[in-house]
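Lest this sound abstract, we let one protein speak, letters for residues, whole numbers for local backbone shapes, and leave readers to judge:
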Amino acid sequence: VVTPSVSGILKPEDAPKEDLIGATPVQAGAEAYLILGGWDGKAASTQVLRLDLAAKGLNPLLRLQVPRARCLAARLTDGTLLVAGGIGSDGRSAVRVAERLDVERKAAWKVGEARWAHIGGLMQALPGERALLLGGTEPDGTACGLEVFDATSGAFTVLDRRAWPAHAAALTRRTGQVLIVGGELAGRPQPLIWQFDPRSNGLTPFGKLRQARSRCTATLLWNDAEAIVIGGRGTGGALASVERISLATGVSSPGGNLVAPREGHAAIQIPTGLILVFGGGDGPKASRLLENWNPDENGCRVQDNLESGAWLPFLGLQPDGSTFVYGLAEVAYGKVPLPPAWGVWN
């Protein structure tokens, strides 16, 4: 058994100098990430930064066509990025114009207009250069519906105008279906699980959580047999409970508990088969506990107690099995803008 170790995670001296809140990180290669837009305290940004872990560099790459913060982004099947939604430069208006990014050509171009801003919603790539956009809210708090982007036509098609939850979790199965878990409507956590089929554009109920929750994570096990739902916000506050959803039946069963409740965290399955859980928390301070959930033990253990936690972290698996971590440093909580920090967990 090899015990993982922490190496340079969330060191303040490694933090990017550009202080942006609401920036969107996405993977852009084996050891590179993009940080899109954000809010600098005065206006939304068009900046796209490239963070290269191999070269240990953070540099401007290109400019978005539209300033935006809290946007959604997903890599389409042709390798380009779709960027949509978010809040505009004045901090109040909805951004409806979408754009695509070609990282290799360092180019961005407008492609169409989404029906909603989907702030706090989700975007999942679909086969055939398409993407699903679901839920979230407009800047005034109005709930958003469901729409699909098709790169062939460059158009968004509204599939469902009903209000769909914000802060839901989603994952894409190997079969192509997208599972949507929990979320909140009018501030109330939801217990339902839905499945979207890209072949029929159909959305059907799939199951029900044992506890209604939002701001949780949903992680697909490598055997594609179960989805693991961790933490989140319930009707009484942050949750420590874990649920195992059978992808054959939709039935949810207990999966043990986190060592401490947390919402607004991130989770990823690492090569050991464990699910790494980091960031978020319960209360004003981000959790410093790095935990792992073990499918064989049906529970969590503390991996380490770090010097700092992080809010709204992003986790990405590296080719060597390490994990890239990007988030808002715990020590910066309550400041506007919030300086982000990053590191690698080995």
About this structure: The first strand starts at residue 6 and ends at 7. The two ends are 14 Å apart (CA to CA).
